[in-house]
Write a structure and sequence with these properties.
Number of strands: 10
Mean pLDDT: 87
Shape: globular
Largest sheet: 5 strands, mixed
Structural class: mainly beta
Number of domains: 1
Strand content: 35-45%
Radius of gyration: 15 Å
Low-confidence stretches: 19-28
Strand order of the largest sheet: 1-3-9-6-7
Number of helices: 1
Helix content: under 10%
Order of helices and strands: EEEEEEEEHEE
């Protein structure tokens, strides 16, 4: 196998003709989360991407409440979690940088977010100059490997909407 792109149930399939917008998110002040469960196949190479969630640009991430669990994926010694938008701004390690997930365990999917950025909105973490009022994609990317065994990445990305 080579480079692949896969989508979780929490990430809208871009081939689906129905429109998806951050306007559809309810305006509430409670915590929200996006659960994901995605398979990594033996042979998935460096550069393979797994889209985990699509969140509104105004979301504030909650690293202490969010989790990433690896069932143990042989050979996968580098997995980063990044952000991107439809305009092409992308940061492969904005949320987590090169975590070694070859052994089963639990990881902080937002480990790369510094203390100063804990109170930033998602668009600010991506480094945008202004809120695009659009959804941003969260994805995992193999940065060191390839995966020589199959396994699963499971997690829960917790976020809140500030200001309400």
């Amino acid at each position: 196998m080579g480079v692949v792109t896969r989508y979780t149930a929490g990430f809208p399939n871009p081939n689906n003709v129905s429109a998806y917008s951050c306007v559809s998110h309810e305006r509430i002040s409670t915590l929200r989360s996006s659960f994901f469960n995605i398979a990594v196949a033996s042979g998935d190479a460096v550069g393979s991407m797994y889209y985990l969630a699509r969140l509104p640009s105004f979301a504030m991430l909650k690293p202490g409440l969010s989790t990433l669990v690896s069932t143990g994926i042989a050979g996968l010694t580098g997995l980063s979690i990044g952000l991107t938008n439809e305009a092409g701004t992308q940061s492969d390690a904005a949320l987590m940088a090169a975590a070694d997930v070859h052994a089963a365990g639990s990881f902080n999917p937002f480990a790369a977010i510094s203390g100063a950025n804990l109170v930033q909105r998602l668009w600010q973490v991506l480094g945008l100059a202004a809120d695009p009022h659009a959804d941003l994609d969260i994805y995992a990317k193999i940065t060191a490997g390839p995966a020589t065994g199959a396994g699963t990445l499971i997690g829960d990305l917790v976020w809140s909407q500030p200001g309400l």
